[in-house]
Amino acid sequence: MAKKIPPDMAELSVYVDKKLKLQFKLACTAQEKPMSEVVGLLMKQWLEIQATSPESEPKRVKTAAKTEETNVERFRQP
Question: CB neighbours (10 Å) of residue 74?
Answer without folding.
Answer: 11
